[in-house]
Amino acid sequence: MAEQWQSLINEETKVKVSSTLDKSVGKKYLTDGSPETCWTSQQGTPQYIQLSFASPVIPKRVEITFQGGFVGTRCSVEVLPSTAQEGGAKWRVLTRIYPEDVNRKQTFDLVPGEPDLVDCRIEGMKFVFEESSDFFGRVTVYDLRVLGVIPS
Fold this sequence. Notes:
Blueprint lengths: L5 E2 L6 E4 L21 E2 L6 E20 L5 E10 L10 E6 L7 E5 L12 E11 L7 E10 L3
Antiparallel strand pairs: 1-9, 2-4, 3-9, 4-7, 4-8, 4-9, 5-6, 5-8
């Protein structure tokens, strides 16, 4: 099944972050694929990265590379289910991940905590870093990839 997964982040994906330390470490560097660039938040928790997809997707895995010492060590992964219902959808917790305080790519399978979120089509995804390994609560991410299915 994993061989059918593809990157869900593309040029049409909108990225929003809770804060940015300065322009040299802005949100555009989260998904540029370069090991030389990164996003760094300002101090304080929680910090977040929010993705808005151009069309509904089904996320299955996240790959994230932090800078050691600035790791979001407790992360709530929230999703915005696609819905045609009036009143719109509400953000829901898909799962929680607990990255290690290391300088390498970490991979997490996104196993939903609620049965109705299994294979749920979503239009948005948010990584909420509730704790950081940095004393001041800063988070630095060099690379973020979300893999999954783009339904036809």
